[in-house]
Specification:
This protein has 235 residues and is of the alpha+beta class. It contains six helices and eight strands, in the order βαβααβααβββββα. The chain is globular, with a radius of gyration of 19 Å. Keywords: Signal. It comes from Peronospora effusa.
């Protein structure tokens, strides 16, 4: 049986200009891919955790989902075709033992979106989770409220290898947390011609949504047999 958890949260993100940035931040994957890997590994290094590397299959799945959200102006772990994060990662050819996904909309750059995720328990858990590989993606649309759409895919595999960029060892500097609020507000997220709401919240200017999920496969039959054998030997 696979385990699946999803949470949708809202964070007040203060931009340098004090308003939404309307222009596309990155035009090439290479513009943000190394920055995202570096920031994720800085956070993991600060906790004494193993560093991640880039996997192009996870990157492909992440880019497809960010492009889908931007094209259809929604933010969700379920794609416009009904796909789940695990299904998208599998469709990209990644042989996973565990996968997790973070998504976000509205944050204009890597620093802003990572600050938002790290200040959310569920997303922070994925970033600091028991994974070895990362794929990240950004997409932009000039239509709609959020314009900037982000996806992170984390993977753990017994067979997949790192691609291109490898883990870095830079230690994390001091990072100032963004301003947050927990007012009684009523926020909404556009989703494929429908609206998903968080109870007792409304969305003022500057509120950007983000969400996280994770999936893991159960232990293999071989592992189960080994565990049963050990129990029998101890009796």
């Amino acid at each position: 049986m696979k385990l699946w958890t999803t949470s949708v949260l809202f964070l007040l993100v203060a931009t340098a200009s004090g308003s939404l940035r309307r222009l596309q931040t990155y035009t090439q994957t290479s513009d943000y891919e190394a920055l995202m890997l570096e920031r994720v590994n800085l956070e993991r290094s600060a906790q004494g955790l193993p560093l991640l590397c880039i996997n192009k299959k996870l990157q492909l799945a992440a880019q497809g989902h960010s492009d889908d959200q931007a094209a259809n102006n929604f933010m969700d772990h379920t794609g416009s075709n009904g796909s789940t994060p695990a299904e998208r990662v599998s469709a990209a050819g990644y042989d996973w033992r565990g996968v997790a996904e973070n998504v976000a909309a509205g944050q204009v750059d890597v620093t802003e979106v990572m600050d938002a995720w790290m200040n959310s328990e569920g997303h922070r858990h994925n970033i600091l989770g028991d994974y070895t590989m990362l794929g990240s993606a950004y997409a932009y649309t000039s239509n709609g409220l959020y314009k900037h759409f982000w996806t992170q895919n984390f993977g753990q595999s017994d067979t997949e290898l790192c691609d291109g960029m490898t883990a870095t060892t830079t230690r994390i500097p001091s990072i100032t947390s963004p301003t947050t609020t927990d007012q009684d507000l009523n926020a909404t997220i556009p989703q494929r011609n429908k609206t998903m709401s968080a109870p007792n919240r409304r969305e003022p200017r500057g509120f950007f949504p983000f969400s996280c999920s994770n999936t893991s496969r159960p232990p293999s039959l071989h592992l189960a047999i080994v565990m049963i054998t050990l129990v029998l030997l101890s009796m």
